[in-house]
Amino acid sequence: MADSTESGSRKLLGRLREAMAGDSAGQERLDKITHLIANSMGTEVCSIYLFRDEDTLELCATEGLKTEAVHQTRMRMGEGLVGRVARFGKVVNTPDAPAAKGFRFMPETGEERFSSFLGVPIQRLGEKLGVLVVQSRDPREYLADEVYALEVVAMVLAEMTELGAFVGEGAALSPLHQQPVLLRGGTGQEGTAEGHVWLHEPRVVITNPIADDPHIEQARLNHAVEELRVGVNKMLEMSQNGDKEQLQVLEAYRMFANSKGWMRRMEEDISRGLSAEAAVEKEQSQARARMEQVSDPYLRERLADLDDLSNRMLRILTGQGKETGIDLPADPILVARNIGPAELLEYGRSLRGIVLEEGSVGSHATIVARALAIPLVVHAKRVTTEALNGDHIMVDGDQGVVHLRPDDTVVTAFRDKIAMQAEAQERYASIRDKPATTQDGKEISLVMNAGLMADLPSLPSSGAEGVGLFRTELQFLVRNKMPKRSELVALYSRVLDAAGGKRVVFRTLDIGSDKVLPYMKPTDEPNPALGWRAIRVGLDKPGIMRMQLQALIRAANGRPLTIMFPFVAQAEEYRAARAEVDKTIAREERLGHVLPETLEIGAMLETPSLAFAPQKFFDEVGFLSIGGNDLKQFFFAADRENERVRRRYDTLNASFLSLIERIVERCAISGTPLSFCGEDAGRPVEAVCLAAMGLRTLSMRPASIGPVKSLLLRTNLDDLRKVILDARHRGEQTVRPMVMEWFRQSR
Ligand code: PEP
Ligand code: MG
Q1: CA of 606 to the centre of ligand 1 (A)
Q2: Choosing from 46, 60, 71, 364, which is the catalytic residue?
Q3: Where are the alpha helices (DSSP H) in 80-190?
Q4: Mutate to test the pocket of ligand 1, among 370, 605, 630, 656 (most ligand atoms within 8 A of CB)
Q5: 276-293 and 297-318 are packed helices; what angle lies between their axes, rounded to 10 degrees?
Q6: Quick one: which of 168, 317, 382, 412 has the fewest CB in 10 Å?
Q7: Residue among 46, 60, 667, 677 flagged as catalytic
Q8: CB under 8 Å to 526, separation ≥6 — which residues?
Q9: Which of these, 603, 602, 604, 506, lies nearest to 556 by C-alpha position?
Q10: Exposed/middle/buried for 563, CB within 10 Å: 0-12, 13-18, 19+?
Q11: Tell me: the pLDDT tens digits for 124-143?
């Protein structure tokens, strides 16, 4: 480099700023910049490649290569040395480019004359924007100092790109965050929604990447770090009594806040001419690029901590808090990396839809979104980097697809879909008060699953006859400390009030497996789904179970009460739990509390073993509800949370239906009321097949009641049963094809 000192680098940034200040167009600016960089670094070539779409880089400006190649030369991510820099977000520095791994010869550029190559990524907070390259004729490796200087320049280019400084003709120069984007993720909650983006954590915008006076910037950085340190220490003090994991995270924060390496790198960036916020962001970008590469979960966690810390610093430095002054749009679609259940509850029903970059099907946020019936797409990669507050967005929770800034054809197609769904909803509303009587006169009772107060308004609107499953653990999951008995009494009492005399089946705490209480000591189990969970925890630690039983009895306050125990694997567990109820009733009576008018006690049948329990168990249990989600996972030995296997086995598999039939028969012998409350009860085809196998009560998400009832009303269960038995008799693995064919023909 002609002038490789810090002041040289500052001078270059100063000239860059001047080049930017004029009112020239995007292309002109890029041309000036390549000229400036080549000139001040003493290289023959300087080129800027920008992404024209997610996977293609385009040569957008060059000093030294053939100008005809500009906007003509393109390469895919990972292709050639430039593509390699882009893919891995890492510097490539080689004295002999043609001999380097991955080199691709591009004759139109005339680059064969140049031997040495130095490429650095242009990226902003994990968003890949392009690649900056310098090349020279003589075979030399660029010095660490030169590499560093080019990285600093790339950082500034990234900021300028973000601010729209290079907008012009051509796809690669079209403004960022304006093109339509299609993102594919997974379904968290079905349903469709159209609205405008509301970023849960808005992006910080840096308008001043280049600074005049490094001393001032250094002082600003020191001040921000100090503020951060004080903040982290305060958080640590406050959570000294908190749980271990939270403390560990905060300790990690403190470690970074005091980390010499982190500080030193930022100080160096500042001395080269970056502003304090640009220096923080450069570190953050690099941490994000590393995060994409590492698979070790511990390292990823630490990088995520560093990312969070950088965000806090940026907010301190720019004064841009979460409060941006922008009002929540009338039709907000929340976009976030992830969100906790409590935060989501705070937004409540004001949200039209939710899109998460991370999240998972079984996460607590998903549970809340389901309870609120808000369409949710999870795993929508890049959504937080692509979306801006206020962007038009369409969420298809059924397909797990998100259309950001959709074009007219997508808008029309999507609105058609929404209109069709609305029509269907109207149809369902018209049958809401009708009983679900099948063509052959069988009456099926449709009840709903719930778990939060937010679910209860759906009871009248869905036409459910009651609550067939109230998952009490959700109330425990969305808090950060164990609820008190008095709180539970108030809550259960409100649930019974809201049900207005309709039956509510309260399932006692079903924790463990995927449902981990944040305030309970985690148990490290090799196979949590098969581990210490649900009734096993309840019986081993009867304190919580007793508290919950007391709360339920007090909340009933003389009204009928129905209690169900989850995950009973053998009769003895049910008996032990029942004995706890008897003891609690006796105690409550002694204490002078009013006892429930009637008390029904039942169990969930979620393990195949219980289907084969001695008949005596069926005689003594008050009622049974098949937890199909768990029963299916154990029957097929296929983890319900594992995307690879969870859809592998069909509910309409002949063996599974035989198991259901057997349970129905055994309950019929003893006259034990039986229901089905797994997700399959809410899928119309599965639901009618379950009814055909003899189930008379189905419990499902409120939104499913309409579609399930609609199909039941049109079905002759006796005929359907014959189709199922016939398929089984023929040895079919799943009865689905024959059932679907029968539906098609009888339409
Ligand atoms: C089930 O397993 O089917 C069930 C209803 O319970 P959960 O989904 O809460 O485990
Ligand atoms: Mg279950």
Answers
A1: 8
A2: 364
A3: 80-88, 144-162
A4: 630
A5: 160
A6: 412
A7: 677
A8: none
A9: 506
A10: buried
A11: 877 889 999 999 999 888 98
Q: Which residue has the higher pLDDT, 261 or 200?
A: 200
- Ligand 1 centre to CA of 630 (Å) is 6
Nearest CA to ligand 1 atom 8: 629
Q: Is-above-0.90 flag for pTM?
A: no
Radius of gyration of the chain (CA): 31
667 annotated active-site: no
383 CB contacts (<8 Å, ≥6 apart)?
Answer: 183, 185, 335, 355, 356, 357, 402, 404
Alpha helices in 319-362 (DSSP H): 341-347
Query: Based on the number of CB atoms within 10 Å of its own CB, is 25 exposed (0-12), middle (13-18) or buried (19 or more)?
Result: middle
Q: Token pair of 577, please? A: 């739990």
Nearest residue by C-alpha to atom 1 in ligand 1:
627
Q: What is the pLDDT of residues 404-422, one digit of tens each?
A: 999 999 999 999 988 888 8
Q: CB–CB of 580/605 below 8 Å?
A: no
Indicate left, alpha or beta for 89 from its phi (over 0: left) and psi (-120 to 50: alpha): left
290 Cβ contact list (under 8 Å, min separation 6): 89, 303
* Length of the chain in terms of residues written: 747
The mean-pLDDT minimum among 36-50, 197-211, 480-494, 590-604 falls in 197-211
What are the pLDDT digits (tens) for 164-186? 777 777 767 777 777 889 999 98
In a mutational test of the pocket of ligand 1, which residue from 452, 510, 530, 565 has the highest number of ligand atoms less than 8 Å from its CB?
A: 510
For residue 345, report the distance from its CA to the centre of ligand 2, in Å: 23
In the structure, what pLDDT confidence band is assigned to residue 2 with cuts at 50, 70 and 90? Answer: very low
- φ and ψ at 352, to 5 degrees? -85, -30
CA atoms of 732 and 741, how far apart (whole Å): 14
Task: Report DSSP letters for 558-606, one per residue.
Answer: TS-EEEEES---SHHHHHHHHHHHHHHHHHHHHTTPPPPSSEEEEEEE-
Ligand 1 binding site (Cβ under 6 Å of any ligand atom)? 469, 471, 510, 606, 627-630, 677-678
pLDDT category at 316 given cuts 50, 70, 90 is confident
pLDDT digit string, tens, across residues 240-259:
555 555 566 666 666 766 67
**pLDDT reported for residue 700:** 94
3-state secondary structure of 95: coil
HSE on the CB side for 506, CA within 13 Å? 27
Q: Which two tokens stand for residue 9?
A: 């680098």
Per the DSSP assignment, residues forming a β-bridge with 333 are: 197, 353
363 C-alpha to center of ligand 1: Å? Answer: 14
Structure tokens given for 631: 């029963």
